[in-house]
Records
---
Amino acid sequence: MTSTTHPMLALTDEVRAALADGRAVVALESTIISHGMPYPRNVAMAREVEGIVRDGGAVPATIAVLDGIPRIGLSADELELLGSAPDVAKVSIRDLPSVVATRAHGATTVASTMRLAALAGIRVFVTGGLGGVHQGAASSMDESADLTELSRTDVAVVCAGVKSILDIGLTLERLETLGVPVVGYRTDEFPSFYSRTSDHRAPLRADDVETLAAMMAAKWALGLEGGIVVANPVPEAEEMARADIDGLIGQALAECDTRGISGKDITPFLLGRIVELSDGRSLETNIALVRNNARLGAALAVAHAGSRA
Ligand code: PSU
Ligand code: MN
């Protein structure tokens, strides 16, 4: 198989070779490193997750923009830079042109990681939580570009659902409107990131990666552009009780209001504040669910590569 890579992307040799051979590759995002977790746990998590993907038989490709160049696959030093440098911007779709034009560093969100992964030919992407429709969106209109990107870019996104910092019901409604399949993995309930449940059912369910890979193949063969959300609940031993976490989230949301935090700063502020308010417990749960997603994402990438062989 020949692979044509977009001329603006820089792939590592390892990722380039894997894609050219049709082997399994898993994309990983970088906003979770730069803006989603504190240093140095963020860097340790990024390295560990790459190891889990490798152990699962796939090649990890962490995606970010460095000196204006979209990078597909990063070195250990580059992960360290993303986790520790103060000048790494949070880059969603609308920010990509500017970070490239000004040759700056950028950590990519779910939306921009999806787009760069797809340009490179990667179809499976592992993250922690998706962005979505924020609480109060009826007046703020704050809805993550992750949702619109899912409607147009052909990548399966493995996540632990949507946090209750967002309006989970409205997020699921928008995903339905946008034609995005949302599949609970071995669950009937849509998970809420820190917890295995929410007050919402998963619209679809799959119990093995072969079924997920078959859904990807069917969607794209039908010309239905856009992604698939694979919602993988946090392991039971690591989940937080909804009563506990929802109280902390409510407090963090109220502080967001009084401090006048808005726009792209909301999610990083809330994530950081929830770690503080939970005395670090939420960080442990966050890392555990990313590990769990990496295991599933690697298996899905292997199944997807096998179904195309
Ligand atoms: N949810 C998390 N951790 C994260 C994010 C969301 O639990 O790090 C990040 C992801 O990169 C996601 C982004 O794509 O926040 C959404 O930000 P916004 O709402 O500004 O689009
Ligand atoms: Mn927003």
---
Amino acid sequence: AEVARRLAAAADEDELVLHYQPLLALASGRVHGAEALLRWDSSTGMVPPDEFIPVAEEAGLVHELGRWALRRACADLVALPGLTVSVNVSARQLHHDSFARSVEQALSSSGIAPERLVIELTESAVVEDPAAAQAVLGRLRRLGVGIALDDFGTGYSSLSYLLHLPVDTLKVDRSFVADIVTDRRTQLLVHGITTLAHDLGMSVTVEGVETEEQLEAIRQTGCDAVQGYLIGRPVPLAALSS
Ligand code: G
Ligand code: G
Ligand code: MN
Ligand code: NA
């Protein structure tokens, strides 16, 4: 409860920050976008999202934090010409009445093109209520906003979501990268996911690339983009745009 109270004040007191991690397009060799990752720069130190998002959800504060993150990310895009920005959204956020409106407001107040914003969600956000998720995502898609499925390939994946949801990008979970260099089957699996995604008109980003050897193995899968410490760690906006 104490944490929830401090968290409620955090947005007002400028204690929330977005860090950005670059996304590298393999065909061009250029950074084409960035994932926004929320941090709480509290009086007791930097708190990672895994620790405070669940608290914010319990306390019903996650919608306000989410609105803040969407507005901040869209405003920050002005300093990142030509790039897209991906914003993470939890199941609770996606299914809240105000969600689509929050996205619309963040777009209109910043004036950025909707195509430059990507909403990143996990399959678990969809599982709860696929029909409701489909409705919200359809509305965002009609605006031109991109939709990425995060942590793809883990958890209770159902391939039928790929048929029914307007997904633009699959983000292959970093657990696949860990042994892609030593396990040929892992590389074949990512290759297969990529072929399937491309046939369905989606692009593929592989997350968690930490070594040159992994990058080489990933290149051979035919995927479109990579993200990970090798390319760049999450950093403040000023460090990304410089
Ligand atoms: O940046 P880090 O690796 O600590 O992120 C941990 C988790 O927190 C990731 O799964 C990420 O998707 C999630 N996360 C980061 N920023 C946000 C955010 O703004 N909103 C939500 N709901 N989750 C976020
Ligand atoms: O679940 P999601 O993909 O949103 O999680 C993003 C988180 O993954 C970020 O908090 C980031 O810190 C972390 N991350 C990003 N790149 C790497 C990487 O190369 N290795 C590891 N171990 N974690 C990473
Ligand atoms: Mn993510
Ligand atoms: Na992920």
---
Amino acid sequence: MSSSLRKLSHGGMIGPCASSNGSNGTNGSISNGNGHPKSTDLGKFGNLENPYNFEIISESAQYIKDRMNIKPEIAIICGSGLGSLADTITDKVEFPYEEIPHFPVSTVAGHAGKLVIGHLSNVPVICMQGRFHFYEGYPIWKCSMPVRVFKLLGIKLMIVTNAAGGLNPNYSIGDVMILKDHINLPGFSGINPLCGRNDERFGLRFPPLNKAYDKSLRTIAKEVAKELKIDHFFQEGVYTMVGGPTYETVAELRAMKLFGIDAVGMSTVPEVITASHCGIKCFGFSLITNVCITDFDAEEEASHEEVVETAHMRQNDLKEFVTRLVPHFEKQIQRS
Ligand code: HPA
């Protein structure tokens, strides 16, 4: 690995101007050695330009390939408090994020920060225990960088999970909302992980997103929920991502309601955009951990403790749900 590439790894923000053809701006250096970009490196694309080019992602993937003894087909991204899903995986090999070349490092309490490769219901899977959020200070392309690593590992399908506030008045705390679609609210102000130069080896310059949440996978999931007799707390709706870390104001939530948004969280959208771009099928669900407050006179407030508590309460149901889902999804991959 070249020394300039090595500087990309292990936490810190990455200098924003490296180009997707492997050149790194004016003097070939991405970092000044302490993880911060050189001022001369602040290129015309600013924070939008994704320096994780194909070669760099390949190095991360190769590190994992050299150390895994199975070929995962399905990737699972665990949301807040849902990381214990990874405990169900057997024959595990674990990769702490700080070990993987170029991988960001998770900073949130409750996000363990490792990739777990093994079997779930005899299906080879890779599970991301701990994800990267925009509110942690990462550029949006860094939040979804692991998805491109998944692609180069041969992943065909991704399950994304998250904790979200319920905006739809028919939703209750503890409900599970299957994602039918999303609204990329940060995208309205130009924040999209695909901004900057496009590398056709990953996907199209202008990828469609109208089938981002695969319909056949949603149908299978609803059948599995029925089989498990947990369908009474299942919903299907539209998710949005806010940048966070603040919870939303009453006026913001009221505006979101007008947009037709059913649940709001702080993740998932960059990962699904990046996965769709490179041809990975997506299935997502939100655990509704709190009710969004849309009354100006309400006394209650949103709190992280409530989110964690609800996630804890539902974790066994969700583990069972994902464990049952995975073999059906594997069959679906083989069919398509
Ligand atoms: N808003 C944003 N993100 C969240 C919420 C919320 O109400 N609940 C869990 N994640």
